[in-house]
Amino acid sequence: IGSASHGMKRCKPCAFFHTEVGCKDGVDCRFCHFQHAYAKIRVRPCKGKRDRFKKLTNLLVDKVDSNPGTFEVEKLVLPSFVEGNMVWRDRLLTKLARHASHAQKVVSG
C-alpha cells in the first residue's frame, strides 16, 4: 500500500522494515518498504535511555564543577550505551568540554 507511489518519489519510508524485527504491518503498512537513498530515518531512543543519558550528563557536569582544574574529557570512560551511539557520544563530549572550559575560566577569574 505505502510502496505504491515509490516510483514517483511521493512515498514515505517505513522506519521498521529494514530493522531486525521488521515491520509488523507487512503488506498493509502505509509506508514504503523499498530502499530509499534519500531518506535517513532515526528512531528516537526510548525514555529510559534518554533519562540515563541525562542523568549521566548531569553527573559528569557536577564532576567538572567540583574540580574543573583537573577534569580531563579525553580520559573519560563512557558507558556502552553512549559509546555505541556516535551522536550521543559527540553531544556529551562537546557539552563537557565547553562546560569544563567555562568552569576553568570562572575559577581562574
Layout of secondary structure:
Blueprint: H1 47-66, H2 80-83, H3 86-108
Structure commentary:
The protein is mainly alpha-helical. The protein is 43% helix and 0% strand. The chain is built from three helices and no strands. The longest helix is centred in the C-terminal third of the chain and has 23 residues. It is elongated. The N and C termini lie far apart (64 Å).
Structure described in brief:
With 109 residues, the protein is mostly helical.
Can you summarize the main beta sheet?
none
What is the number of E strands?
Answer: 0
- Unreliable sequence segments: none
Oligomer: single chain
Rg from alpha-carbon coordinates: 21 Å
Structural class designation: mainly alpha
Shape from CA axes?
A: elongated
Overall average pLDDT: 84
How much helix is in the residues? 40-55%
Rounded to the nearest angstrom, the distance between the terminal CA atoms is: 64 Å
Measured by DSSP, the beta-strand proportion falls in under 5%
Tally of alpha and pi helices: 3
Secondary-structure element pattern, one letter each? HHH
